[in-house]
Each structure stands twice: as C-alpha cells, then as structure tokens.
Amino acid sequence: MSVNPPSSPPKQDNLLFAIPKKGRLYESVVKLLNGAGLDYNRPNRLDIAHCSSLPVTLVFLPASDIAKYVGEGNVDLGITGQDIIAESKTTVNELMNLEFGRCKLAVQAPIDSAITHPSQLAGKRIVTSFPDITANYFKQFETDKLTQIKYVGGSVEAACGLGLADGIVDLVETGTTMKAAGLEIISTIMTTQAVLISNPKTRHSKLVKKIHQRFVGFVLAQQYKMITYNICTEKLQQAIKITPGRKAPTINPLFNEAFFAVSAMVHRGDVGDIMDDLHELGATDIIVFDLENCRA
Ligand SMILES: Nc1ncnc2c1ncn2[C@@H]1O[C@H](COP(=O)(O)OP(=O)(O)OP(=O)(O)O)[C@@H](O)[C@H]1O
Ligand SMILES: O=P(O)(O)OC[C@H]1O[C@H](OP(=O)(O)OP(=O)(O)O)[C@H](O)[C@@H]1O
Ligand SMILES: [Mg+2]
Predict the structure, then answer these.
(1) Is the CB of residue 24 below 6 angstroms from any atom belonging to ligand 1?
(2) What is the DSSP letter of 51?
C-alpha cells in the first residue's frame, strides 16, 4: 500500500489522531470533533492541524490507510470503517462504534445474469477495493480454480458493465449506486460502521481515554433528546411510565399549584410517540430540546 506522509511535521509529543481527509465519513467526523471540543484550525489544503484545546495533532489521511497507520505506525488514534480494519489485517484496539458510516460489504452481480448464489462466482472474475476480504470469502466456494480478484480504488460498480468482471464486492448503503449500475446483491459479507481505534502501543493512553470518554458522551447525546412538561399530581405516575428517563426523570413541584414539572431523556426516534402520549394524558407545556453533549 502506498501512503503519503503528512505535509508538515506534527508537534513533538502531541497525540496523533488520523482523520479521513474526504469521502463519506468526513462530515460526520468533523461534527464529532466539534462536539467533543477538539477545536482546530486546518489551513487550506494542509493535511495536518494542531488542536488548540488539547495536545493533539490531527492528520488527514485517506480512510483506507488509517487502520494501517494506527496499527503499525506512530499514530495513536484514528477513525475509519470496520471494513477497512478487516481488510488491513492490522491489530488495532476498537474503542467504540461511532454510529455513522453504516453500510454493508456485498457481493453483487448484474441483474440480467443467471447468478443467484456466490458459489456461482467462485473461480470467476471479481473486481473490488477489498481484495483480501474477497479472497477469503470466496475460498469456501472454490473447488479447483482460484477466484480472479482485481483491485480498483473506486467506482467499483462500473466493472461489470465495462466487461472487467463477472461480479463485484463493494459497499452498499441505500443501493442507489448498485441499482444505477444494473447490479443486485447476491450475498452480504459483512456489515460495517465507523469506529474509533487506537494503537495498542500508544504512549498517550491517558489522553486516548479522555478523548474516548468525550466521544462516548457526544455519541450518546446524539441518540437522545430532553423532554420537559407539566403534569397534575393525579397523573404524575402515569406520566413517569411514559418518560422513565435513562435512570429516572427529574421531578420538581410547581410553585403554588398541584402540578409538577418533569424532565427526562428520551430516545430520539421515540419523541413523536411520547409527545402524543403525554398530550393525550393531559400534560401541558411539552418542550423537546436537542442535547449538545453529555457525560452519563
Ligand atoms: N455509501 C456509504 N455509506 C456509508 N458509509 C460508507 C459509504 N461508502 C463508504 N462508507 C464508509 O466509509 C469508508 C470510506 O469510504 P469513502 O468512500 O469515504 O472513502 P474513499 O472511497 O477513499 O473516498 P471517495 O469516495 O471520496 O474517493 C468505507 O470504508 C466505509 O466504511
Ligand atoms: O448504496 P449507496 O448509497 O449508493 O452507497 C454505496 C456507494 O458509496 C460508496 O461509493 P463512493 O460514493 O464513496 O464512491 P467511490 O466508489 O468512488 O468510492 C461505495 O463504494 C458505493 O459505491
Ligand atoms: Mg468511496
């Protein structure tokens, strides 16, 4: 694998943190860094940026190289996909799932072909950006002939239409790319999402732990919203059943009234139903807030 060194030297003794320089993970990673308070200024086109808030240097690298840098280089932390870790065969510590970059790595073939099972592609021509995972996967179906696996760095879906492959192994999220290329899924090799990884031999374990904890808080905060409402004494117990909170709801009596103000964390996806249920019960002044960050 060819990898370019960063364009200017990192600050000595800073923790090095590898960030995807572009692509599908980039925007979510930038949000995560902001949310976790890792402030930085990235001069135009430079692949290196020093954080102003922590002794951390960000190195912007292709997502596909990050597992290698973290596993074998001096890079302490990184963000990349589980698919890339599996393909790199390097040992890294997977610290946490980041809940974005979700997709699956799938064997695909032209819709108008007679292929319905991956065994029909064993020994044939497969194009992919994941040659190692692909070779291992097809081994189970091979009898005499080895599967011919060709690596391409992108636009894998074009390979069948251009006569280079009988099938491909590529990532599928919505399926738009696959359908546009006239392909369909024959089998799924693995599901994947973005993860925070660390170098098992890092000299910065304290700082790794700190950043990890901040990310845990931010990712948790993204999954919840805060709801507050007023409810009369007689209906309080029923309301608590609707919003039990993560541990328990916070309940405060309202001044001079037989009412309580309740606040609780609720799952983002449940908010609509919970508001309906509370309204039906007779709760008033129901307000929902986004959580910017939290520490559970
Ligand atoms: N469509 C997608 N939906 C969700 N996650 C994806 C998708 N495509 C790729 N990923 C995840 O992001 C990782 C990096 O892929 P990405 O396409 O961003 O890199 P790239 O191909 O180097 O960049 P680019 O496509 O801009 O050339 C993948 O290994 C996978 O984990
Ligand atoms: O199922 P979908 O939602 O269409 O997403 C899947 C596509 O996304 C990625 O490609 P990307 O856009 O990164 O281009 P690339 O193939 O050139 O890397 C991946 O390689 C698939 O082709
Ligand atoms: Mg891509």
Answers:
(1) yes
(2) B
3-state secondary structure of 79: strand
Q: Are residues 74 and 120 in the same domain?
A: no
Q: Are residues 187 and 198 in the same domain?
A: no
pLDDT value at residue 9: 60
Residues 125 and 161 in one domain: yes
Does residue 168's CB lie within 6 angstroms of at least one atom of ligand 2? no
Does 22 contact ligand 1 (Cβ within 6 A)? Answer: yes
Q: For the chain, how many structural domains are there in total?
A: 3
**Considering only CA atoms, which of 103, 106, 89 is closest in space to residue 194?**
103
Cβ distance 293 to 223 under 8 Å? Answer: no
Q: Does residue 9 belong to any structural domain of this protein?
A: no
Top mutation candidate among 171, 176, 192 for ligand 2, by most atoms within 8 Å of CB:
171
Question: How far does residue 105's CA lie from ligand 2's centre (Å)?
Answer: 11
Going 148 to 168 to 170 to 189, the CA torsion angle's sign is negative
Q: Which pTM was predicted?
A: 0.90
Q: Is the CB of 76 under 6 A from ligand 2?
A: no
Q: Do 54 and 198 belong to one domain?
A: yes
Residue 84 beta carbon below 6 angstroms from any ligand 1 atom: yes
Q: How many CB atoms within 10 Å of residue 209? A: 12
- Show the domain range for 133: 103-192
Whose CA is closest to atom 11 on ligand 1? Answer: 101
Is 216 inside a domain boundary?
A: no
Residues 138-154 have pLDDT tens digits of 999 999 899 999 999 99
CATH number of the domain where residue 261 is located: 3.30.70.120
**CB 175 less than 6 A from any atom of ligand 2:** yes
Would you state the pLDDT for residue 7?
52
Among 68, 52, 60, 78, CA closest to 21: 60
Minimum-distance ligand 2 atom for the alpha carbon of 177: 4
